[in-house]
């Protein structure tokens, strides 16, 4: 059976590609199964330093496969096919110790925006568009609200969740859904720029920094200073920290930087 998600590894960067253009890379049970498998491979593979999630065709992901959603719910899918492994996939991306870049090849809708929000970086063409269309179908952006509401400005979330209105890439950057919106011809270079910068960071340091970006704002000022002082001391004396300092002093790349 043909795979709906492909993988590629080069220079420490794993590219995972949604490849189901006939249904606009919709979140079918098959695609979700392939995507979960590919993500687990990338997270377990020691050579992978950065993950890039992208798609084929003009649409990154159109959301749930509505043809499947009309089918009779099965006992194994928690009531609806899209829930089969989508929560696990969102968690894999969000909690990944390796940075994940979403390279949007085009438009995204509904559940596809959950993938976008779960990634650490999201870069899209300027001419792409976005919409949370769930309410117009009589459903709700339930699962995707978990990562999306951690990214979006609250006023913007209410506006687009409730209206289902289409908005452009510039607006998506403004409200926190995207990191960057660039002309189509600059997309690959921009993604490569971010991926290249990320491979220069220590693997442990990147994983820990991902955590503190999310956790520190919820701490009190006093608790934050105490815990971060302890963490700072641990990292300066860690094997990775000592290697990074030595590499800087010796004017050489640290051992973790991939070599072509």
Report on the structure:
The protein is globular. It has 260 residues and is α/β, with parallel strands linked by helices. It has helices at 29-44, 66-69, 86-95, 111-118, 145-148, 154-163, 169-175, 187-198, 203-215, 221-237, 239-249, and strands at residues 5-10, 13-18, 50-55, 59-61, 100-103, 107-109, 121-125, 129-131, 167-168, 180-182. The longest helix has 17 residues, at 221-237. The strands form 2 sheets. A 6-stranded mixed sheet has the order 1-2-3-5-7-10, sandwiched between helices.
Short description:
The protein has helices at residues 29-44, 66-69, 86-95, 111-118, 145-148, 154-163, 169-175, 187-198, 203-215, 221-237, 239-249; strands at residues 5-10, 13-18, 50-55, 59-61, 100-103, 107-109, 121-125, 129-131, 167-168, 180-182.
Tally of strands: 10
Basic shape: globular
Task: Give the low-pLDDT segments.
Answer: none
Largest sheet: 6 strands, mixed
What is the CA–CA distance across the termini?
33 Å
What does the average pLDDT come to? 94
Radius of gyration: 19 Å
Helix/strand-derived category reads alpha/beta
Order of helices and strands: EEHEEHHEEHEEHHEHEHHHH
Count, helices: 11
Strand order of the largest sheet: 1-2-3-5-7-10
The proportion of strand residues reads 15-25%
Subunit arrangement of the protein:
single chain
Portion in helices = 40-55%
Show the helix and strand layout.
Blueprint: E1 5-10, E2 13-18, H1 29-44, E3 50-55, E4 59-61, H2 66-69, H3 86-95, E5 100-103, E6 107-109, H4 111-118, E7 121-125, E8 129-131, H5 145-148, H6 154-163, E9 167-168, H7 169-175, E10 180-182, H8 187-198, H9 203-215, H10 221-237, H11 239-249
Parallel strand pairs: 2-3, 3-5, 4-6, 5-7, 6-8, 7-10
Antiparallel strand pairs: 1-2, 8-9
Helix pairs in contact: 1-3
């Amino acid at each position: 059976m043909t795979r709906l998600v492909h993988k590629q590894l080069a220079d420490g960067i794993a590219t995972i590609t949604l490849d189901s253009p006939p249904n606009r890379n919709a979140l079918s049970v098959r695609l979700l199964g392939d995507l979960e498998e590919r993500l687990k491979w990338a997270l377990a593979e020691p050579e992978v330093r950065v993950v890039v999630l992208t798609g084929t065709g003009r649409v990154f992901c159109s959301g749930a496969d509505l043809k499947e959603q009309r089918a009779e719910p099965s006992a194994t899918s928690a009531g609806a096919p899209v829930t089969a492994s989508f929560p696990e996939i969102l968690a894999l991306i969000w909690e990944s110790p390796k940075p994940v870049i979403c390279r949007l090849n085009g438009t995204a809708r509904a559940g596809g925006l959950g993938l976008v929000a779960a990634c650490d970086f999201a870069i899209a063409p300027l001419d792409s568009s976005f919409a949370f269309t769930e309410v117009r179908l009589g459903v709700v952006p339930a699962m995707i609200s978990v990562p999306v509401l951690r990214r979006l400005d609250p006023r913007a979330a209410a506006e687009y969740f409730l209206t289902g209105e289409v908005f452009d890439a510039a607006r998506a950057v403004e409200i926190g859904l995207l990191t960057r919106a660039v002309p189509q011809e600059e997309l690959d270079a921009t993604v490569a720029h971010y991926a290249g910068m990320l491979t220069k960071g220590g693997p442990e340091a990147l994983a820990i920094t991902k955590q503190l970006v999310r956790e520190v704002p919820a701490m009190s000022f006093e608790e934050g200073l105490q815990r971060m002082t302890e963490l700072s001391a641990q990292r300066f004396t860690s094997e990775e920290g000592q290697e990074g300092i030595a590499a800087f002093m010796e004017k050489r790349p640290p051992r973790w930087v991939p070599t072509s």
